[in-house]
Amino acid sequence: MSTIRPFKAFRPKAEFAGEVASPPYDVLNSDEARRQAAGHPYSFLHVGKPEIDLDPSIDPHDPLVYEKARENLRKLVDQKILAGDPAPFLYVYAQTMEGRTQYGLVGCASVEEYWNGIIKKHEFTRKDKEEDRCRHVRITGAHSGPAFLIYPDQPEIDAIISKIVSAPPENDHTAADGIRHRCWIVSDASSAEKIAGIFQKIPRLYIADGHHRTAAAGRVGRERAEANPNHTGKEEYNFFLAVYFPASQLRILDYNRVVKDLNGLTEMEFLEKISANFSLRESSAAVRPGKKGDMGMYLGGRWYTLTTDPLLLNAGDSTDRLDVSILQKYLLDPILGIHDPRVDKRIDFVGGIRGLGELEKRVDSGEMKIAFSMYPTSVQELFAIADEDKVMPPKSTWFEPKLRDGLFVHFL
């Protein structure tokens, strides 16, 4: 049984939606956020990245930073830039990118379902990042950015959403990056009840993005439950803000790799070593892999296609069959000496939204020595690994478009 629960959202008034909505806190560093929010006092970056309003010398995890987040959030409410809805609702949130639209349902997911494994994860969280989000939730008393959840396609829900979005949206704006964002209220109580009833028959939900937000909501929810002698399980802290998307509408982009050096090898020695598990052919153009098992490689101003030995694609373990796992296990680790990509400073990751030109730029500048372009992980691979309670290597999936922060706020 899965939960999607209506809630009283605080949302920007229609005329402020485009000014408030901001990228997620974790896709910009502090300097980038500071530049993007300059001259935009209502940008939700002032809540998600509140260090931008303090002296740059202050540590982003200083208690002052979280207090500033609370202050900035309250200011948006007090100035009536964000207004609370009169009753609990579900919402529809549509994102259109490059002519393609995905429709998500906005509601609250269950903390308990995260702990008992109904909401499945596919990656490890880092304790420092988890604690950062915990402190943000504790001090602001709100979930200010949604988790991104996936559910198996449900034609009945598709039909309900199709009817809702035939009406004009509550707000509609196109961000600077060209992505259009629209929101509708599910104002018909019977439709909301039907949606919730269908979700109760869905055995599992999957985290696409927002593992740290979800883990933080789980931890803070348990803390508040343990501190409340009259805990009932219905309090707002038992639920967290989420956008639920059907699997077939999602687009996973490649998540590419760049490495600083060849681990002491010459280019010729390196090329010889990789031939044990990959066939290699030079390409006259940048390589965007067209099928599973193929990888692009940029080295010495040349692009190559690496094709994986078919035996490796038939490994018994679902995690080992991932292209990113094969690259890690048979090339990055044994040949380039990248033993733990989570902490090794010699490797960096480049989301596919930046394009292959970004890989060439990083290598041609001399910052990096070699780049690998990957075939995207599929939603089906994500489901299979999560269902087995396994985790993917770091940076295995890049979902695009990103959810915007600030369009919905859930107060605990």
Describe the structure.
- The protein has helices spanning 17-20, 30-37, 45-48, 63-78, 111-115, 127-140, 155-164, 189-199, 211-227, 267-274, 310-313, 323-332, 356-364, 379-387, and strands at residues 10-12, 82-84, 90-97, 100-110, 119-120, 142-143, 147-151, 171-174, 180-186, 205-209, 239-246, 252-253, 255-259, 278-283, 294-299, 302-308, 347-351, 370-373, 398-399, 410-411.
- With 412 residues, it is an alpha+beta fold.
- The strands form 5 sheets. An 8-stranded mixed beta sheet has the order 5-10-7-11-4-3-9-8. Strands 14-16-15-18-13-17 form a 6-stranded antiparallel beta sheet, sandwiched between helices. The protein has a two-stranded antiparallel ribbon with strand order 1-2.
- Helix 6 (127-140) crosses helix 9 (211-227).
- The longest helix is centred in the middle third of the chain and has 17 residues, at 211-227.
- The radius of gyration is 22 Å and the shape is globular.
- The model has no long low-confidence stretch (mean pLDDT 95).
Offer a few descriptive terms.
Conserved hypothetical protein from pyrococcus furiosus pfu- 392566-001, domain 2; 2 domains; 8-stranded mixed beta sheet; 6-stranded antiparallel beta sheet; single chain; 412 residues; globular; alpha+beta; 20 strands; 14 helices
Please outline the helices and strands.
Blueprint: E1 10-12, H1 17-20, H2 30-37, H3 45-48, H4 63-78, E2 82-84, E3 90-97, E4 100-110, H5 111-115, E5 119-120, H6 127-140, E6 142-143, E7 147-151, H7 155-164, E8 171-174, E9 180-186, H8 189-199, E10 205-209, H9 211-227, E11 239-246, E12 252-253, E13 255-259, H10 267-274, E14 278-283, E15 294-299, E16 302-308, H11 310-313, H12 323-332, E17 347-351, H13 356-364, E18 370-373, H14 379-387, E19 398-399, E20 410-411
Parallel strand pairs: 5-10, 7-11
Antiparallel strand pairs: 1-2, 3-4, 3-9, 4-11, 6-20, 7-10, 8-9, 12-19, 13-17, 13-18, 14-16, 15-16, 15-18
Helix pairs in contact: 4-6, 6-9
